[in-house]
Amino acid sequence: MYFGFLLLAALLPAQSVERNRVSVSGGWGEQLTVYTYNRQTAPVLGLSYAFRPLRWFELETGLFVGLQPGQEQCSAHGCFDPNDRYFWVPFGARFVAPIAWRRVELSAGGGGLHENYSISNSNFNIRSRSGWGGYFAGGAAVAIDRSHRFWLGATPRFFLANPAYARDRWFVITGDVSVRF
Fold it and tell me: How many domains does one find in the chain?
């Protein structure tokens, strides 16, 4: 019993003061499919929040949007732009390895995902859909100030969703600007 309290007392001071992280992200995403003729790509914007109960472990959630991934479809009767968006809401955990005097961090994690594919201009062969899945993420971040409040980083993510009648697989890489408090 005393050993458990001693271990807990040793781990508690390891937590830094900054337990919350808010990140704004921007980058690029590409759909991973076998068929290259209909592969979609899109600019991606995101906002995420993370809470760190321990120095090496954080719980995170966010919202990422893939803008206009659908290609314009043209025929003899004119062109059709689906004006579509992917909305991804990941929620999960990430393990963080602070290295280099707490100025550099490497991380990896994953969790659940909700995906919503929205179309403004509907067509007879393209429909909106939503479904559940999972995600995996890794990353690296560097503190850009002495107080370790502002961070720059890069995060590759794999979004794997299974809505009805579709299997969406996306690779997204973003540059992140984070504030910790």
Answer: 1
